[in-house]
Amino acid sequence: MYNSKIIGLGYYVPDNVVTNDDLSKVMDTNDAWIQERTGIKERRHVVKGDGDTTTTMGVKAAKIAIERAGIDKDDIDFIVFATLSPDYYFPGPGVLVQRDLGIKTVGALDVRNQCSGFVYGISVADQYIKTGMYKNVLVIGSELHSHGLDMTTRGRGVSVIFGDGAGAAVLSREEDTTKGILSTHLHSEGQHAEELSLIAPGMGKRWVNDIIADNDPNDESYFPYMNGQFVFKNAVVRFSEVIMEGLEANKLAPTAIDMLVPHQANLRISQFIQKKFQLSDDQVFNNIMNYGNTTAASIPIALTEAWEQGKIKKGDLVVLAAFGSGFTWGSAIIRW
Ligand code: UT7
């Protein structure tokens, strides 16, 4: 058995900065409300016609990660792509990355675990590498939310939160099993599936043919729905549980954490976790202020920035944790 380690990281966000004041011009919201409730100051939105899609942003992030990994694209043995905003309903973006990067015909897997997508993705990659089946696995989290949001006052509870962007990691074989990804921990609770969801177009409650036939401008099932307070309450509990589960599995105490990179759901959630585990500002990385919540992309973007800023060093204990739609949640305990 091997371990896997992250040998390359990259991220890409569109240039277009959308401030809270910009949003207040198109809906009834304001900078004070958004900052107070979420910590978000601005986010990035793809500009129509610029050519950015979930896949192209993922490819841009992946190219940086592959270059930093010091490997050739043809050394990639497998692709894992996590998103809730795929370019197409099907096929998923994994194969589009294989095409756009010009990689040989390796397997490409799409992960549908929303905010937990990147943690689920690296968990999958880790298992393949552990068993020796693959040596280098590319894991991407990418989202283009902006053009699927209800940018009117009706949608303000959701649309002010989410932003666009992508992050990627190359995971590679590590012979020393005290290094790299020590463990991953995944959970789901489908009982609350609809509390944070986008129902249409699906083949469940809102069939595509019905949506077309109804042609109803008041149909909200096209837009993401979130029961914000309910999600918040579950998030703080599950984040705490799954971080503790990961630490205990490795016989570690919270004091052992050098850097916690939580999914950037809401700055208030990160601050709650920080307080609960008595971590200093240097032990938790947040960038939601600048990018909003980029769901599957948020951890790889944050991890890349933390690494670029020298906040993650060799030997550090790095903890990733996520919670989101599904509900799904997970953690990864990494010895850098
Ligand atoms: O990433 C996946 C996981 N996601 C999360 O973990 C998100 C968890 N939830 C949250 O972060 C918070 O619940 C939100 C930030 C989404 C909302 O904050 P909240 O403190 O729970 O606000 P609320 O939804 O209870 O709304 C409070 C008030 C309402 O007005 P009334 O009914 O009190 O008059 C809303 O209509 O704020 C109003 N409101 C807004 N006002 C200005 C809702 N959205 C906005 C807005 N601007 N954008």
Uncertain parts: none
Q: Beta fraction of the residues?
A: 15-25%
CATH architecture descriptor name of the largest domain? 3-Layer(aba) Sandwich
Query: Which fold does the CATH topology of the largest domain refer to?
Result: Peroxisomal Thiolase, Chain A, domain 1
- Proportion of residues in helical segments: 25-40%
Give me the count of strands: 13
Subcellular location: Cytoplasm
Pathway: Lipid metabolism; fatty acid biosynthesis
GO biological process, one term: fatty acid biosynthetic process
EC number: 2.3.1.180
Summarize the structure.
The protein is α/β, with parallel strands linked by helices. 33% of the residues lie in helices and 23% in strands.
Structural features, described:
- GO terms for molecular function: 3-oxoacyl-[acyl-carrier-protein] synthase activity; beta-ketoacyl-acyl-carrier-protein synthase III activity.
- Its main location: cytoplasm.
- This is Beta-ketoacyl-[acyl-carrier-protein] synthase III.
- The chain folds into two domains: 3-177, Peroxisomal Thiolase, Chain A, domain 1; 181-335, 3-Layer(aba) Sandwich (Peroxisomal Thiolase, Chain A, domain 1), CATH 3.40.47.10.
- By secondary structure, the chain is of the alpha/beta class.
- It is globular, with a radius of gyration of 19 Å.
- The model has no long low-confidence stretch (mean pLDDT 97).
- The protein has eleven helices and 13 strands.
- Helix 3 (54-69) packs across helix 4 and helix 8 (228-249) packs parallel to helix 9 (267-276).
- It binds oxa(dethia)-CoA.
